[in-house]
Amino acid sequence: MGLQARLEEVRGRIARAAQAAGRRESEILLLAVTKVFPVEVLLEAYALGLREFGESYVQEFERKFEQVAGLAGARFHLIGHLQSNKSRKASAMFQVIQTVDSARLAQRLAEGGEPLGAMIEVKLYEEQAQQDAAPEDLAVVIEAIRQQPSLQLTGLMKMPPWSDEAELAGPYFKRLKALAEQHGLTKLSMGRSHDLGVASQDGSTLGRVCSAQFRSRKPLV
Ligand SMILES: *Cc1c(COP(=O)(O)O)cnc(C)c1O
Q: What is the chain's pLDDT, residue by residue, as a tens digit (221 residues)?
């Protein structure tokens, strides 16, 4: 199956889930996650009409950036954890940082002055790497982002713990949506290949899809 057919399949899943939840398909944007794939995969996806791209690692994207920086209308989202010492590099290459997790990182991201979209990665369960913003700290992080004129806060993001049963991600998505509503935020970056349908029903506005589209391509490592 080619990339186009996989893309249509993914869009079909979003459409069916949206319909089941009484939502419009157009409310859910597809983010093509191209992490660990060579730049050719990103260019191929662009040629098929995709415009929102997700990358997880600043250093990896740096190596692809030159070849994609000029693509008209393309927007690049950082969806992996950002160390503050890489914040300048990140703000120069990405349009959206989905993984803002502290007031300090928000300040660092604003130092370059580039206009940047921001989403907050929220801690919804215990993990070994305790980096996300805890729900009780959300108000502080939100305020720190809003104080920076160059940052535009849109919403929240999180990836639930892996489970073979996609339905088990549902409670995490519902919790993220409730937190967004509580803080007056409208965008929800949630859902990956296997739980995209669940996320779309639970209010996702941005599905981050990698393997369902690109698994036939050869990764970098
Ligand atoms: C890799 C990744 C995805 C996409 O994963 P698939 O299950 O392959 O679709 C989504 N979100 C984040 C944060 C990722 O790192």
A: 789 999 999 999 999 999 999 999 999 999 999 999 999 999 999 999 999 999 999 999 999 999 999 999 999 999 999 999 999 999 999 999 999 999 999 999 999 899 999 999 999 999 877 789 999 999 999 999 999 999 999 999 999 999 999 999 999 999 999 999 999 999 999 999 999 999 999 999 999 999 998 988 888 86
Residue 98: phi and psi, rounded to 5, are: -85, -5
pTM above threshold 0.85:
yes
Give 15 Cα–ligand 1 centroid separation in angstroms: 20
Closest residue CA from atom 12 of ligand 1: 79
Which two three-digit tokens encode residue 199? Answer: 């996320």
| Ligand 1 in reach of 211 Cβ (< 6 A) | yes
Which residues are bridge partners to 157 per DSSP?
121, 189
Task: For a ligand 1 pocket test, name from 30, 55, 159 the mutation site with the most ligand atoms within 8 angstroms of its C-beta.
Answer: 159
CA distance 32 to 212: 10
